[in-house]
Amino acid sequence: MGVQQNFIGGEWVDGATARDNINPSDLSDIVGTYAQADAAGVTRAVDAAKSAAHGWNRSTPQQRYDVLEFVGNEIMARRDELGRLLAREEGKTLPEGIGEATRAAQIFKFFAGEALRIQGEKVQSVRPGVDVEITREPVGIVGIITPWNFPIAIPAWKIAPALAYGNCVVFKPADLVPGCAWAIAEILSRSGLPKGAFNLVMGRGSVVGEAILNNDAIGAVSFTGSVDTGKHVAATCTARFAKVQLEMGGKNPMVVLDDADLDTAVGAVVNGAFFSTGQRCTASSRLVVTEGIHDRFVNAVVEKIKTLKVDDALTAGTDIGPVVDESQLSQDMKYLEIGQGEGAKLAFGGERLNRSKEGFYLQPALFTETTNAMRINREEIFGPVASVIRVKDYDEALAVANDTQFGLSAGICTTSLKHASHFKRNSEAGMVMVNLPTAGVDYHVPFGGRKGSSYGPREQGRYAAEFYTTVKTAYTLP
Ligand code: NAD
Fold first, then answer.
1. To test ligand 1's pocket by mutation, which of 175, 226, 323 has the most ligand atoms within 8 angstroms of CB?
2. How high is the mean pLDDT of the chain?
3. 367 pLDDT exceeds 90?
4. Integer Cα distance of 249 and 380 in angstroms
5. Which of 90, 92, 239, 443 is 20 to 30 A from residue 155's alpha carbon, by CA?
6. Rounded CA gap, 437 and 20, in Å?
7. Contact 289, 243 (CB under 8 A)
8. 78-127: pLDDT as tens digits
9. Above pLDDT 70, what percent of the chain?
């Protein structure tokens, strides 16, 4: 297989350089070699989008529906193959990869429907004889910058609404996962979209990402990634008055109260903290547990994680695949040391593991006897590492849950309607889960957080229209 090229102006084009995509489960396996664009490639993509914008902005709902439905149907039909590619390049297990590919298909199909449902308002003027119309129009050209941890779902939940509302797209995926991005581009290239309406520019954040942020023709940038990059994205975009939407990190609490059903709590915690190798912005990393259930809960979680099989993402029966790359693995290991240095007890895990093939395998780790002031409870680790914080009662649990710079997802396991209702109302997170893992959301409702986790309008569901459109108010004297 040769170099997989960028897709610009309806053509496959070489990059300035190329980069190998390595399988984190087997470092000898090269998934593919992908073109790396430079700043000139971004300029070319934006010029192509400008040429396409006038036509695509005025496309009919039926045209947009047809394109998005085509993409959704094809991803759905190929979900096993795309899920396998995803698992191979990112390290999620095969069932998780197939699940994510299925999600991407559902998102495209949802936004196909949304393209048919774009609405405006006609209201009475305060002046006699005047008509007032409020309509939603496309922003124009949207820059999309995505992280590596959901290589197909996150691009889908940005590209699909961007196109559904009539925008043209310049898309830059994360360096570690060009495979899924290229596969989406390849499907879009056959979808009936006009040339230039969708462009793929793979390459480094410091080169391709920067060129997107600084291009005046890009009217809106949707970014998902880390807080530090997000701050830079916001500063650069707002300086030139571009719209910006940021989804960033999390330090998501899962509260477990004395009256919780133990099996439900353990199931939700093990899923939320460790599945997808803990590499989810919505992962439960702080387990806030009341005294009466603390010891039983810790023992049950440790017993459960002992049974989890950490291995090649593509091997049947693997529960947890590898960490995505060497630098993320060293970050995880660094925090395992920091936690022990801070006085936390490593109740289980945290060893680097050897498997038949060389990969970035890490045993899931559980800290106990931690305080919310420790760095392991304040900073996002982004690996299969969770900490238990012991609290005396619900009030303290709520205070600890909210005491964080982040506010993406928060969970509570309880059989008390009173505490569940109070937590839903008083949690300072964008998404609240009762007796469910903090990770795992529906695709037709808004996704996003508060405080340092998110900035700008919500993503997904009907709320996506807020970011991908701009409102016009028109007055007519007939
Ligand atoms: P990252 O910030 O390193 O990179 C994200 C994207 O930004 C990549 O495509 C990268 O190439 C690009 N980028 C880097 N520097 C840039 C620059 N100067 N200008 C423009 N673009 C630049 O994040 P990551 O390591 O890929 O992803 C992990 C992070 O993403 C975690 O913090 C995680 O919590 C977060 N995340 C958040 C959500 C959410 O919805 N809240 C979802 C998934 C991941």
1. 226
2. 98
3. yes
4. 7
5. 239
6. 35
7. no
8. 999 999 999 999 999 999 999 999 999 999 999 999 999 999 999 999 99
9. 100
| For residue 1, pLDDT beyond 90 | no
| Residue among 90, 149, 176 whose CB has most ligand 1 atoms within 8 A, to mutate | 149
Closest ligand 1 atom to 173 CA: 9
Asked if 368 and 374 touch (Cβ cutoff 8 Å), the reply is no
422-to-69, 354, 360, 390, 436 alpha-carbon distances in Å: 41, 46, 41, 20, 16
Nearest partner of 304 among 386, 369, 379, 375, judged by Cα: 386
Residues composing the chain: 478
Indicate the angle between helix axes 153-164 and 178-189, nearest 10 degrees: 30
Bridge partners of 311? none
Q: For 26-167, where are the E strands, in sequence order?
A: 26-36, 121-124, 131-138, 141-145
Average pLDDT over every residue of 174-192: 98
Please list, in sequence order, all residues whose beta carbon lies within 8 angstroms of the beta carbon of residue 197, skipping any fewer than 6 positions away. 49, 52, 53, 55, 56, 163, 168, 169
**Coarse DSSP helix, strand, coil percentages of the chain, rounded to the nearest 5 percent:** 40, 25, 35
Residue nearest to atom 20 of ligand 1 (CA): 209
In whole angstroms, give the CA distance from residue 59 to residue 137. Answer: 12
| pLDDT tens for each residue of 330-346 | 999 999 999 999 999 99
* Distance (Å) from CA 172 to ligand 1 centroid: 11
Averaged over 280-307, what is the pLDDT? 98
Measure the CA–CA gap between 171 and 141, rounded to whole angstroms.
Answer: 11
Is the shortest distance between the CB of 331 and ligand 1 below 6 Å?
no
Q: Is 155 in the pocket of ligand 1 (CB under 6 A)?
A: no
Q: How far apart are CA 271 and CA 319, in angstroms?
A: 10
Question: How, if at all, do strands 220-224 and 121-124 pair?
Answer: unpaired
Q: 409 has which bridge partners?
A: 431
Q: What is the pLDDT of residue 48?
A: 98
Query: Residue 422 and residue 399: Cα distance in Å, rounded?
Result: 12
- Predicted local distance difference test score (pLDDT) of residue 201: 98
Whether 100 is in the pocket of ligand 1, judged by its Cβ within 6 Å, is no
**CA-CA distance, 369 to 367, in Å (whole number)?**
7
- Residue 65's Cβ-count burial label (10 Å; 0-12, 13-18, 19+) is buried
For 192-212, write each residue's pLDDT tens digit. 999 999 999 999 999 999 999
* pLDDT at res. 335: 98
